Predict the structure.
Amino acid sequence: MGFTGCSTSPTVPQPPTEDQSVTTEQIEEREHVIVSPVPDNSDVATQQDFDEISTTVNKPIVPISPSVIEPSKQSAAVVTLLDSAQQYKQDGDLRSAQTSLQRAQRIAPRDPEVYYALANTHRDLEDYALAEQVALKGVSIVQGQPTQLQHFWTLIADIRSEAGNLSGAEKAKEMANRY
């Protein structure tokens, strides 16, 4: 059995041709430096200045999270979903509470209150691994907010304790006590 069909020989790409008819002129570049006199009225540092600088206590630089500078406002939809999740939890319907909180999370993916409530709900559902994961995501969101960090680390300690990870719970308590 043979193959039939059209056959063409492969084409070899040719390098682009240069148009030699146009001449180019070399442009002469010159560097320009502007020199102006600088008045000599600057103060000379004294040994006393250096002593003052060396005795000054430097405070550590702490990065400030944008949420510390300007707390974000919750949208009406997120507030409604948080309220409905709380109502579902009071009624004992943890799955509906979880669904409401997951919707709120999609609307406001950087809202720490949503992460805290969702982690708590996963804990109540005894899904400790997911509860801890959500709480740790909350920790990453609230960097630079000591009170929020303390709340999240305390929650993580409780989750780990309920999951039977007592050494992990102790480490989380230590983290919470730092704030």
